Structure of Glycosyltransferase N-terminal domain-containing protein:
Amino acid sequence: MEKPHAICIPYPAQGHINPMMKLAILLHFKGFHISFVNTHYNHKRLLRSRGPSTLDGLPDFRFYSIPDGLPPSDVDTTQSIPALFESLPNHSLEPLCELITNLNGGEDSDVPPVTCIISDGCMSFTLSAADRFGLPEVLFWTPSACGLLGYTHYRELVQRGYIPLKDMSDMANGYLETSLDWIPGMNNIRLWDLPSFIRTTDINDILFTYLMTEVENLPRGATIVLNTFDALEQDSVNPLIAINPQTFTIGPLHLMQQHIHDDRLKNIGSNLSKED
């Protein structure tokens, strides 16, 4: 019987790559074949930071890369987040589909067929690839459950007139202390407590609008997984389950990874910057 084969696609920033790597290692420990997909840019950064053998992987834990659509650069830093938000959906989908095609039967394919996609929640354009190949997709959201729940109410904040800010004086005049009593699981939360992308005077701000639209894809995921646990955030998790009943807490991943002892994985890491 062939192993299940998961393609893991993190959003290309350090705070998203790390938890996706932990999840991939846990799935590998449970018997999955893993194809971990970085952008070309971050693939090169990993080689520079961890050495030329860091992406050699294992026969059943392999690394691949796809373009992000941004101009080539050798600068060793995280790329512009707004630029990535605009570029990734337009330039990474077709290369991802080509990769899946090659893994599923290309001349050089020596891996089991892809059985699922695990994508960062901020990379929901990958749902189109899942639809094209008839694959289930897991959306892995890396922020806290309460942070994700805040994102899901961005559009209603606009509809109710809270956002955008009238002008930047609202940042300091007490407006952000406004209490909100209508968000399930967040009783009497303040505007100040919500994820900070709401603090804009521009209704078309790319960071705000991108996240507002990304969370609207939550119902499309076959499963939603969160790096938290029920005892910590049950009040925030329950409203997310109402959006997609297949929502599960799987954290804390860093604690579970500590119980995996496999010398074969010791060279697999995700730090984009050189370690001391």
Remarks:
- The two ends are 43 Å apart (CA to CA).
- Residues 164 and 201 are 5 Å apart (CA to CA).
- The chain has a mean pLDDT of 92.
- The first strand starts at residue 5 and ends at 9.
